[in-house]
Amino acid sequence: MDIPERIKELREVLELSALDLARETGIPYETYIQYERGDCDIPISVLYSIAARLGVDPTVLLSGEDPKMDTVSVCRSGMGIHIERFPGYEFSSLAYNFKHRTMEPLLVTLDPNKEPAAPVTHSGQEFNYIIEGTVTILVGQRTYTLSAGDSLYFDATVPHAQYAIGKIARFITIIQNI
After folding, report:
1. Tell me, what's the pLDDT at 120?
2. Domain of 154: which CATH number?
């Protein structure tokens, strides 16, 4: 619930109505209200749109703190900002402390025993590199089954989703922020 609360607080500080923020970020009002109440997961691309409109780095929404680094940012093992996007899909932001980043590298963990998420779209491009396990990636109407060491690069405006097969899988995804 921290992220929706931060969004609402910043919106209110800026004296911006929920309707205006939804309209200015291109999010249907009903969907925006669900995000702000914490009723549904907020896609990373939507977080970036909201952060841009609120005039903050996305790290502020994720952690409540401003990023500090502008030349180099090290993220030690297990120290990224951990987010459970929905049950069975968790990620850690690996560059959360770098100001003005144009890419979002994430370490994603998928649990095949949980209900998979619906496909999403966002601006930019995306790169997935499988670290362990087997992941099926849906991009548009095609599916790709990848194992450790395999990778996939795709247009993120095409509906896409990732599913673990058999056991917990981990992969690095790098999302281009446009």
Report:
1. 86
2. 2.60.120.10
Q: Are residues 170 and 95 in the same domain?
A: yes
Residue 85 confidence (pLDDT)? 67
Instruction: Evaluate whether 173 touches 154 at the Cβ level (below 8 Å).
Output: no
Q: Which residue has the higher pLDDT, 82 or 166?
A: 166
Per-residue pLDDT band for 86 (boundaries 50, 70, 90) equals low
What's the number of domains the chain is made of? 2
- Do 54 and 135 share a structural domain? no
Assigned domain for 104 exists: yes
Instruction: State the pLDDT at residue 108.
Output: 92
Dihedral angle over CA of 17, 23, 27, 31, nearest 10: 40
CATH number, position 52: 1.10.260.40
Write the single-letter amino acid at 59: T
Return the structure tokens found at 98: 């770098």
Cα–Cα distance for residue pair 131/53, rounded to 1 Å: 34
